[in-house]
Amino acid sequence: MRHLQAEIATMPGVDDVNPLYTNDFENGAQLSLVVAMPKASEEQIAAVASRITRIEGGDFNGCRQSTTFVVGDRLEVKRGAELNPAQIAGDTHRLRELRTRVPQASILWSRDGATVRLEVSDIDHTSDVLSAVLATVQPEPMTVYVRSAEPTKFPTWEVGIPITVEQRANIDALISRLALPIYYVRVDDARITALSVYITDPATAYRDLKSVISTIAPTKQHPLQLQWHLMVEPDNFHQFTGDLQVPDCRDDSGSPKPQPPQGNQTADAAELQRQLASDFHDCR
């Protein structure tokens, strides 16, 4: 471990190297390495990735591994056990290009096996940032997660790509027609699969939520996971909240049965959830 740290620290473009090895009962052995190279060239970053692989050899095959390259201010490229130097250099190039479009954000691009995720956080105008990300990255399968610093004003997006410009426009058109403000939207295969909305008035919640469901038009093949919360809760414990899969076709026993409030859910919220489940249970 010390040999790895000492050798990498002397390479061109490296500002700092921080290795961490842990081995506990719950998580097992894990090696995490953070290499700070905020001003390094892409070639220097690729060279460090190659050297890490060569030094480690098979010494850590029995533990989980991760390496994070800090390639700019709040700009990180993270990998699991496999380090592909050319891919890391390419991702660095695209992240730095994205930084010119999104100057104020924390950005992390992680790859671990088949799991690819690009996260952009602590920003406003999340829809515009999502557009910038989609215009910058290659249309390969991955999840793009854009989290707002103010979710009551700008929703968080979690989007599976590839997604075409036309498909994105169709989703934006659906969002613009919703009767309630949203704070989270998940898109898979160019369809809205999960949605979290704010209830602005409990008196109109049933009508508003029913309108939201009808607008999204979920089906048995393409269900919607819908969550809702009152925008301002008067009681920190008893809350007007709900969580419903629409339609819920996981059980063929017929119409949904009455259920008691879940957790800190109010009785009115539980009844609203049951009523919506009853209205939208067509699993044909």
Shape field:
elongated
Order of helices and strands: HEEHEEHEEHEEHEEHEEH
Helix content: 25-40%
* Count of extended strands: 12
The overall pLDDT average reads 90
Radius of gyration: 23 Å
**Oligomer classification:** single chain
* First and last CA, distance: 59 Å
Overview of this structure, please?
Residues 242-272 are annotated as: Disordered. The chain is α/β, with parallel strands linked by helices and 284 residues long. It has a domain at 163-284. The chain contains seven helices and twelve strands. The chain has helices at 2-9, 42-56, 85-101, 126-136, 165-176, 205-216, 267-279, and strands spanning 16-24, 28-36, 64-72, 75-79, 106-112, 115-123, 142-148, 156-161, 182-188, 191-199, 224-230, 241-246.
